[in-house]
Amino acid sequence: MKLYLAILLVIVAVAVASKEEEDLWKSYKKKFNKNHSSKEDVNRKRNFIKRQKVIEAHNRDNKEWEMGHNKFSDMTEEETNVLRGTKMVKRRVKSASEPIYPVNERALPTYIDYRSNRCLQPVEDQGECGSCWAFAAITALEFNHCKKTGARGPLSEQMLVDCDTYNFGCNGGDFTQAWQYLENYGGAVNGTSYPYVSGTTQTNGTCKSGSNAVAARVGYYNWVIPYPNATLIMSYLQMEGPLPSAIKVLDSFFYYTSGVYSDPACIVSDEYDVNHAVVIVGYGTVPSTTTSPAIPYWIVRNSWSTGWGNGGYFFIRRGVNMCNIESWTAFVRAA
User: Fold this and answer.
1) CA dist 130 to 83, 170, 173, 208, 275, Å?
2) Please, what is the Cα angle at 231 between 217 and 92, to 5 degrees?
């Protein structure tokens, strides 16, 4: 009799869990407008339930940052790997005298946040194309062109994806190579006249740069040297504006929603172990409490839409070169 009751309880528990998973899956599909064929739905649901368990375990054990579902939750690893589109080439330091910015952290503001600055364009979505490098390059150039001229407007990432022969379009690239291309071939065109479409087409298009007028030119760019140096990055951020960088993206990062991201597996020894381009737009510190120390962080812009993370942004631990973010910062100045 006891064995019968035990088996019955197991059957009931499995049935309840299955019903809860089905309800979660239906709710997720409705929220993120997912429509799959009946055959595909089985595999997509399996991916979603796998992520659901990871998210639950993380949020139960980690108090510094939270994970949550987003448009990636039912995707395969092959699909999310497309988003890892940075391919940094060997670092080349340009030969030009650099201004001496203060490197004493006490002389710097305690908080910088460019997210509401009029020169920073809205967060965009690279879609299913490894074009993060183009978005990083254009974001910084847009900001600096606006800061110099007062003219605020979008520049074209699609032009770089289609035309930049120094990079590889949807197959990845290096934001400094993009600036070199723009410096050599005239400049960036207006994003309204040459809109981004590769997130939908998932491929490069035919280059049309010759039919569009140049809207912004690259005057100079370089790395933040020496590296990794968080205080120096803070100085350049204050003086130059948003700074593109490259990071290593782990699976955990895809489901970030809030808090200060960190992962022990993202402290890496190889500086070339990076696969995604982002833009640092600020920094700050989470105050200490009676139970936890202060947490310094970077405010970083992503190119996975405003529906990802915190309105398209994320915080990541500052001062420890988390995910190599402090190894690849660079700046650009508009001509």
Assistant:
1) 5, 4, 8, 20, 10
2) 45
Query: What 3-state DSSP class applies to 27?
Result: helix
CA distances from 241 to 42, 142, 189, 237 (A): 46, 11, 21, 5
pLDDT, position 107: 83
Q: Which residues pair with 298 in a beta bridge?
A: 283, 316
Query: What pLDDT score was predicted for residue 126?
Result: 97
Checking if the pLDDT of 140 tops 90, the result is: yes
Contact 245, 279 (CB under 8 A): yes
CATH topology of domain 77-334: Cathepsin B; Chain A (3.90.70)
Instruction: Write the CB contacts of 5 (distance below 8 Å, at least 6 apart in sequence).
Output: none
Which amino acid, 72? F
CA–CA separation, 187 vs 179, rounded Å? 9
Residue partners of 284: CB distance under 8 A and separation at least 6: 110, 111, 112, 113, 296, 297, 299
Q: Residue 330 in 3-state DSSP? A: strand
Arithmetic mean of pLDDT, 195-203: 94
Q: Which residues are catalytic?
A: 132, 276, 302
Are the C-beta atoms of 240 and 99 separated by less than 8 Å?
A: no
Domain ranges for the chain: 2-31+38-67, 77-334
54-66, pLDDT tens digit by residue? 999 999 999 899 9
Q: In angstroms, rounded to a whole number, what is the distance separating the alpha carbons of residues 147 and 179?
A: 17
Residue 202 pLDDT class (50, 70, 90 cuts): very high
What pLDDT band is residue 101 in, cutting at 50, 70 and 90?
low
Helix axes 175-184, 132-149, angle to 10 degrees: 60
Tell me how far apart the alpha carbons of residues 175 and 160 are, in angstroms, rounded to a whole number: 10
Q: Is 249 left (phi over 0), alpha (psi -120 to 50) or beta?
A: beta
Share of the chain above pLDDT 70, in %: 90
